[in-house]
Design goal:
This protein is of the alpha+beta class. It contains 3 helices and 10 strands. α2 runs antiparallel to α3.
């Protein structure tokens, strides 16, 4: 990390309709925007973006943390990132066996659908949600030092 960013942090806030899921200072954050994964460092330009189903990852005190999020929006300004999403799940709370079963069901529905557009869209969303849960779980299990995520 360059000297320019060494002592700077980003305030990260993740909200759902029911709860403030996370609020804290982080070194960087990656969010699943509708345009792809967006990496955010201190002094990032102001930006509004749609959030897609996927994994939010951040580094806090040198430890990587991961959450599965659903759709919503994000705002980046003045070294602050605020995400307002429908659902946010910390990776260590994800039941990976349940997510794998949901993934299998969605694949089965997609491969055996009867051309009902509504069911196809629901199955595609279910596939993305299950896949994001599995991804977040494995990133947490294999790519971070275990940290208690809820401050």
């Amino acid at each position: 990390m360059s000297k320019e960013f060494k002592d700077k942090v980003i305030k990260l806030i993740i909200n759902t309709p029911d709860d403030k899921v996370f609020e804290g200072e982080v070194e960087n954050v990656y969010i699943p925007s509708s345009e792809g994964v967006c990496g955010i460092l201190p002094s990032h330009a102001h930006m509004l973006t749609a959030i897609d189903i996927g994994t939010v990852s951040y580094i806090r005190q040198g430890i990587g943390s991961f959450l599965k999020v659903s759709t919503g929006f994000g705002e980046i300004q003045n070294n602050s990132v605020t995400l307002s999403v429908e659902i946010a799940e910390f990776a260590e709370h994800i039941n990976v066996d349940r997510a794998k079963k949901a993934l299998e069901r969605s694949v089965d529905r997609l491969s055996n659908h009867e051309k009902d557009a509504i069911d196809v869209k629901r199955a595609e969303k279910a596939f993305k949600r299950a896949n994001a849960r599995i991804e977040a779980h494995y990133k947490y299990s294999y790519g971070s030092k275990k940290e208690s995520k809820k401050p």
